[in-house]
Amino acid sequence: xxxxxxxxxxxxxFKGAPVELKCNYSYSxxxxxxxxxxxxxxxxxxLLRHISRESIKGFTADLxxxxxxxxxxxxxxxxxxxxxxxxxxxYGGGNKLTFGTGTxxxxxx
Amino acid sequence: xxxxxxxPRYKVAKRGQDVALRCDPISGHVSLFWYQQALGQGPxxxxxxxxxxxxxxxxxxxxxxxxxxxxxxxxxxxxxxxQQEDSAVYLCASSVFLYNEQFFGPGTRLTVL
Lengths: 109, 113
Known about the structure:
- By secondary structure, chain A is mainly β.
- Chain A has strands spanning 3-5, 10-14, 19-21, 24-26, 32-38, 45-49, 60-61, 72-74, 83-91, 96-99, 103-108.
- In chain A, the strands form three sheets. In chain A, strands 2, 5, 6, 9, 10 and 11 form a six-stranded mixed β-sheet that branches.
- The radius of gyration of chain A is 13 Å and the shape is globular.
- The N and C termini of chain A lie far apart (41 Å).
- The model of chain A has no long low-confidence stretch (mean pLDDT 93).
- By secondary structure, chain B is an all-beta fold.
- Chain B is 0% helix and 49% strand.
- Chain B has no helices and eleven strands.
- Chain B has strands at residues 5-7, 10-13, 19-24, 31-37, 44-50, 53-56, 65-68, 75-79, 88-95, 103-104, 108-112.
- Chain B is globular.
- The A-B interface holds A 4, 43-46, 49, 86, 88, 90, 92-102 and B 3-4, 31, 33, 35, 40-45, 48, 50, 55-56, 59, 91, 98-99, 101-107.
């Protein structure tokens, strides 16, 4: 069965420090992975998807099939990056997302 | 333009009551999804519609849960005889079609006493 694991519930970094939010997955099919973000008092929104290979708000994520990982990275954290981040896997023919438990990122001044 | 809206935003129910949660997707979006998010967890898939057809309801936790989208637009998630374990945030999402970005609503927080 498909599964997404985010090992850290809380990650605290200082402003300007690098950030890496970890995500590992298990899935027998060809994975399609996403990062969603939820800022305080806002709704869940898509940050990036691996097939786009984009950098959004300075964040990037590379799919590593060998390590079954899709870690989210940013070289220099900003205060406005503080939010809850969810890694998600698309499965079931493209109509279902399974989410990890989320990592709360706190960027301190 | 307006995003996905959900109502009510908060619902308190006594154990055993029936509740109905509404979702208004983005106009023109074919696909509509319901998720359940328990405290401290990520969202979990409940069911999926393509227009008015409910194509997948494998995530519904019991036969007390029922969803419909009769005209292919607004959707209602109904929970009969609510139990304390039903307490969660219920999220609705819509997308233009399969594989497109899912846009989420603000959620309905259900508390069952």
